[in-house]
Amino acid sequence: MKRTTTDSNNIPKSTTLVALDGYIVHINPITKNNTNDNHHYSFIICLEDQSTVKIMEYLSKVPFCFLYNRLQESIKNGRAASITSLRQQNNQYTCTISSKLIDKDLNFRPDCIRVKTINMLKKETNDQLCTVEAKVCSISDEVAVVFEQNQFKRVQKMKKKVTIGDSTGALEMTIWDGHFNQLLLGNSYHIKLLKVRVYSDQISLTGTTDTSFITIDDLPNVIDEVDSTIHRYKTEKGKIVSILKNDNHYICQCCGGINIIDQAGVVSCNDCHSRLLKDKNIVDDYFKISISTMSNEQYNLKITKSLLMLILSENNSDFIQPNDCFDNEPNFNDCSLTVQFTYSETTGIISDISILNDIELHHQNDNAVEP
Which domain of life is it from (predicted)? Predict the structure, then answer.
């Protein structure tokens, strides 16, 4: 008697086809494949959550596609569309022979093609697509970059660093060899579908194969100095719980001693004579402050001595004595003020703080008890 067993791992899994609704914001031209005579193209759709998805369509040796014509019509008429019967695998989308474009009416517009200022881009998230109008302020020399496609093949590409700016700021933009001939120093451009790169609260821009450059009239009052730092600020209201001095005393890393001299940017140990260059990023003029909000959240932040003196002086002019208050930490124990404060989510440093008056307190309490 013969029995046949089937390995379930060898059975092809059925693929569920999906549809995406949004706006077609870009279509790449139909291109011949590198490895054979067939063709392909890609297009980008912007979804309701403002994310973007690139969709691939693979063609035969004949570079014609009815869907391609419908995509072009969709861009022309400005309407939204539904792309049906897409195959999804590993977050990648591919058209099938059944894929169609159906016109739709949606209650949003694509944000990635809306022109934004350089300063507004600092609110964008990593890998977001954006559109700007900016002037080319500087262009670096070419730099070779090697990409490893697989364990047998490496590809070298050339890139340049370009500084672009408008009246609100300037950022660094990376372009690749395919865009070198599209930019001239000193010209202004409508730059569509740049990719935002955010790393360690630093922002930069990168051109992709989908990025386009359209020459526009020269922009006035352009800033050419790059400021890539992202400053994220948040404003809250709460009650001061405690104020403590910041511990700025060094302990010798070599011997563990505390017989330390801090002078001229060098920290020296009198016991073992080891020395350490003081970190320039360390600022001693800060106090630790804890604030509890009405929603029972506690913030442990830092505040400068000058800003703290200002808020305490506002509360009671007799409270502040230049030497007494800050030299004696227990003087802060009675400070239970209700304040509105703004702090940096990057550094945890308070940039603005003010005492809430009775009217503001009453309004805040009313809002807190609302269902």
Answer: Eukaryota
